[in-house]
Amino acid sequence: MHFDPTFRDDVWHAKFWAQAMLDLALPAPGHYGEVQIVQKVSQTASIFNRQLLLSTPVQWTLAYEGATLWMSDTPQERLMMLAGTTGMHGHVLVAGGGLGLYPQYLWRYQRATRITLVERHPDIVAMLRATLSPCLNIEIVHEAFEHFIAHCHKQHFDSCYIDIHPTLDPQWLPGLNWLRNQCSAAVTGPLRIWGYQWMVGELVSGLMREYIPLLRKGQYFATDLGRDVAHALPKHWQCWSVTRLRSWLTAYACQVAWPLTMPAFVGHPL
């Protein structure tokens, strides 16, 4: 398995725009169990903190659970999904189904020959099976990814993409790192995690801003992450420069791992 923690899917690449904005098979508006699909028209789009004015209004598809927006095909989401397909090939393992954007980009632009998509939410599974039914060589598995990867070691995948963030809170990084590590025996090639470098940056900035000042005072957060950071920091870290400390925290954020505990419905709320 090859995982590059510095890979960025959260930066603007003008060359991806035309590729990302092609027509995709998307679920029709309506209720799919607990999930509701709606369509909205807009002529503006926020992309990586940039506000774009489009030449014409465009219709976007959004998935809600109650009042919470969980998935969409808005430009930023499309661009991040497309970037995440870079280098994927062969039999690709995909954790998290979303609206089915990622498999379609794989077929269109990469050398994928087969896709195994693992999704825990039954309503999303049913929706994807209907939406992606014309796609050949795709298997949609209804199971929690952490359970799937625990007993799939007799299977081997050429590539893997993980997109099952329960929230955008960077404190989920240890769980995502743990999932990544569990894939090492089954994935022989590249593995990518949606928004990974962004989450690392947010975690490190938050620790530098909120937690390091407390540690310097001899205080700590009584959470798993708070205790682990306090324990993992080497002796004499308080003598380090800001640059050295940030570098250490970045390496720590990419390595710290413990089992992921997830709610029943998994996606990344927008």
Task: Give a quick set of tags describing it.
270 residues, alpha/beta, Rossmann fold, 2 domains, six-stranded parallel β-sheet, four-stranded antiparallel β-sheet
List the helices and strands and how they pair.
Layout: E1 2-3, H1 16-20, E2 30-32, E3 35-47, E4 50-65, E5 68-72, H2 75-84, E6 89-95, H3 101-109, E7 111-119, H4 122-131, E8 138-142, H5 145-150, E9 159-162, H6 173-182, E10 190-193, H7 196-216, H8 224-232, H9 242-255
Parallel strand pairs: 1-10, 6-7, 6-9, 7-8, 9-10
Antiparallel strand pairs: 2-3, 3-4, 4-5
Helix pairs in contact: 2-3, 7-9
Summarize the structure.
This protein has 270 residues and is α/β, with parallel strands linked by helices. It has helices at 16-20, 75-84, 101-109, 122-131, 145-150, 173-182, 196-216, 224-232, 242-255, and strands at residues 2-3, 30-32, 35-47, 50-65, 68-72, 89-95, 111-119, 138-142, 159-162, 190-193. The protein starts with a strand and ends in a 15-residue tail after the last helix.
How far is the N terminus from the C terminus?
Answer: 29 Å
Average pLDDT, all residues: 93
* Largest sheet report: 6 strands, parallel
Which percent range fits the helix content? 25-40%
Model regions low in confidence, pLDDT < 50 over at least 5 residues? 263-270
**Helix-strand pattern:** EHEEEEHEHEHEHEHEHHH
Calculate Rg over CA atoms.
19 Å
**How many β-strand stretches?**
10
Query: Which architecture of the largest domain would the CATH scheme give at its second level?
Result: 3-Layer(aba) Sandwich
Q: What is the domain tally?
A: 2
Report the total helices. 9
Sheet with the most strands: spatial strand order: 1-10-9-6-7-8
- Strand content of the residues, in percent? 25-35%
Overall 3D geometry? Answer: globular
